[in-house]
Amino acid sequence: MWRKLCLATAVVLALVAAPNADAGQDTHRETIHLKVSVFNDAQVPLSVLREAEARTQSVLDEAGITLTWLDCGTPGKWHTELGCRDISFPTHLSVRLVAAKKAVSEDTFGQSYLNEQGEGNYANVYVATLSSAKALDVIREGDLLGYVVVHELGHLLLGIGSHSAEGLMRAKWGVSELREAARGNLLFSKIEAERMRARYLSAAARGVGGDSSKLRISGK
Fold first, then answer.
1. Is 11 inside a domain boundary?
2. Could you tell me whether strands 77-78 and 108-113 are parallel, antiparallel, or unpaired per DSSP bridges?
């Protein structure tokens, strides 16, 4: 029997689950441009990383968000010329592909970090946990990695209460979600897309900025 996979933990001082119904509204009024620095501590093979990038981009495209994926390199071979460390919410976020098994549980693939205002710049993806998961019986590793990355970006862009009852932002993925993911059909709802875009535009207008070191984090 399949055990459902805990996809992510949004780490905040208080996290309240909120339902995510699809309002059926058009989300593509204005394209949002998002830059993401990807630090490949786990030295994920380039072929897998490229699949993950393509899957992340395709999901964000559906939500009206264009992605600039910065491949920031591996330990000892960082690409410092790309501006990978110029992190600033909400326009430039960071994802670290962690090599060691540091997840809070054996079926947690990632964590995103938010402050009390529900704003954050960075997330971790636990590659060792992901690469040994039974989920790979259903979906390719690159696609699964991409979906986990975009799930974490969803937490950063949606803020507190961003887990949903179903779909991409569901806290735990079962077989049905993985099968939809394998078909490329696991997406943000229209309400989630609208919420991400609204929060992005609001934060960008306020000039929130700041790097992740300035966030007040309550982690595990």
1. no
2. unpaired
